[in-house]
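Sample pair:
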Amino acid sequence: MVKKFVCLTALGTALIAFVYQPAPAQNSSGGGAPNYLGTPPKPAISDYGPFTKINFSKSSTKPLIAGRCGNPSGPCLFYGGDFVFDPFYPPTLANGLANETDLNVFGIPYGAAAWVPFTVPAGTGWAVTGLFTNNQSTYGVLDQYPTTPTSAAFWSVNQAVSPGNAGTVIASGTSAATSTPTGRAAFGLNEYTVQVTGLNFVLAPGKYWMAVVPLCTNTDDAYCHGVFFESDVEYINVRPANAQGPPEPVDESFFDSPFFGVSFTQANSATGACGGAGCDAFSAGVLGRKIQ
C-alpha cells in the first residue's frame, strides 16, 4: 500500500499516513525528516537563500498564451507561476499549505487559508474580474453553490496584512467557482484550479494579499472529507514557469487558520507554517484589465 505523509509544522513536526488527519503543510519538513518517497531529506529553505537579491532568469517554458492565465484562462494581471514537483531535485522544495473549508478543517470564514501577496504597479490601476488558486486536492469537488453544478469558494483581497493582523478588506465574498484540473499532481493528489469570476472592483497601486479558499461543507457529501493544499512555487534565482505580471513578493505570504489556532503567521521561515520547507511563494493569480 502506497503511503503519503503530511507535515504538521508550526504546531510541531509529525509524519502521518494518508488516512487523513488535518495538518497545515503538505510535505515532510527539512532538517532531516524523511519524505514520503523515502528520498533524501529536503534542506531547509534557508539553504538556498538569501532571497532579498533575486536575479530572475528566463523560465524554461513560455506562457501557453501570452497575457492570459487561470483555468479556464482569462486576461491576466498577475500569476505566481506553476507548481513543480521533483522529489529528486531538492531546490524545488515542493510543498503546499492547507487552504480549505471542509469537514476536516472548518471555521469561519474558512478553516484555513493561504494569503498570497501581489503588487499593483505605480501609474496604473487594476479592474479585477476574477481570482484563482491552484490546489492539490483529493477530489477537486466542492459545495454546490447555490443550486447550480458549480463549486463554491470564499475569496478576499486585503491590504496591509501583517503578522497576527488581517489588514483592511478591500473586497471579499463567497461566490460560485470552477474547479478544473491543471494536469499536475504530487503527494498522491491532483491539482485543481479553483477560480471565481464575475468580480468587479478596482485596485489602486500598492501591495495586496489575496485568498481563494475551496468550500466543501455538506455533511451528506463524502467528497467533503477530501483535502486541499494550495500549491507553492519557488523563486530560487529563476522565475517560476508561466508566471506573469509583477513578480510575486517572496517570503511575504501568510497562513491563517481558525481551525489550527493560527492568526496570520508567516508561511515561510523555520517558525512559519511550512517549517522552512518551501512556501516562499504560491500558485495564485488575478484576472482583469489595467486602467489608467
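The radius of gyration is 17 Å.
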